């Protein structure tokens, strides 16, 4: 009887271990990660990554937001595991302003911003005294737009982490530089001389990037504008996050950028 009890106990233990092993395998094969994104940004890229993730045992669920602050807040409090919408500069400023602990976990792409011509303008030299130029009104992209106008030679700025129109020290053409909501910039081209428009907004509005009269130059200073995958610090080493990064940073993804977003430069293995 004792031998029978020992044998039964061993058999039960083996069965339990096998069941746990099977359960663990099922769990690992059905891992889910929530990714916060802005609208339909890079939809073709993500659609492909989602399909590749299924084959690799990772279920990727996109959670769509309309505001970057909301995406970072949701990442901070755990509503999403990782997000994909911002560059290093935006992340650093958000962390400072919100006492955040978000961390860049992987590079994605660099998207140079552009100056698009408005009414009666075909080149930068067409701009004349008193012309209106609209720029994004959110602090990060407003500062980037002003830096672009300084690079062109239209204005000079005093040193500021987040430049605003108040930081303009020289405006040789007395241009009227007006911050507006980023989503309204393309429509403003009908009435203003020019607009500084980020790549995502231009793409969503079907603006031809080749129509731009100036493109943000790429240099070592561009590193702050590289877009990233960002996660809460306690999620940075999560296996699912690492698997997502590996799926993203591939030649397949590069080929998709070349096909659908040729103005965006894959940045994870590129030196600027």
UniProtKB/TrEMBL annotation:
Xref: SUPFAM superfamilies: Periplasmic binding protein-like II (SSF53850)
Task: Report the membrane topology from the UniProt record.
Answer: Lipid-anchor
**What Gene3D superfamilies does the database record attribute to this sequence?**
Periplasmic binding protein-like II
Q: Where in the cell is it found?
A: Membrane
- Which PROSITE patterns does the record match to this protein? PROKAR_LIPOPROTEIN
Similarity remark: Belongs to the nlpA lipoprotein family.
Protein name, UniProt field: Lipoprotein
Q: Please name the source species.
A: Periweissella fabaria
């Amino acid at each position: 009887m004792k031998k029978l009890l020992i044998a039964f106990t061993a058999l039960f233990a083996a069965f339990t271990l096998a069941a746990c092993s099977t359960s663990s395998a099922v769990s690992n094969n059905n891992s889910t990660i929530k990714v916060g994104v802005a609208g339909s940004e890079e939809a073709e890229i993500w659609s492909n990554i989602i399909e590749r993730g299924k084959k690799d045992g990772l279920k990727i669920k996109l959670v769509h937001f309309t505001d970057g602050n909301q995406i970072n807040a949701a990442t901070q409090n755990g509503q999403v595991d990782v997000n994909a919408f911002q560059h290093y500069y935006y992340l650093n400023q958000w962390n400072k302003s919100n006492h955040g602990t978000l961390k860049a976990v992987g590079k994605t792409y660099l998207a140079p911003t552009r100056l698009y011509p408005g009414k009666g303008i075909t080149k930068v030299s067409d701009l004349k005294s008193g012309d209106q130029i609209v720029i994004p009104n959110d602090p990060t992209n407003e500062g980037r737009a002003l830096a672009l106008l300084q690079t062109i030679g239209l204005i000079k700025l005093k040193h500021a982490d987040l430049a605003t129109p108040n930081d303009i020290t020289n405006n040789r053409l007395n241009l009227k530089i007006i911050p507006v909501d980023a989503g309204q910039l393309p429509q403003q081209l009908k009435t203003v001389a020019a607009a500084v428009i980020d790549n995502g907004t231009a793409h969503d509005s079907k603006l031809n990037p080749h129509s731009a009269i100036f493109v943000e130059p790429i240099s070592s200073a561009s590193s702050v504008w590289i877009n990233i995958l960002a996660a809460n610090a306690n999620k940075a080493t999560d296996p699912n996050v690492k698997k997502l990064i590996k799926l993203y940073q591939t030649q397949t993804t590069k080929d998709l950028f070349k096909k659908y977003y040729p103005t965006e430069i894959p940045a994870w293995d590129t030196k600027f």
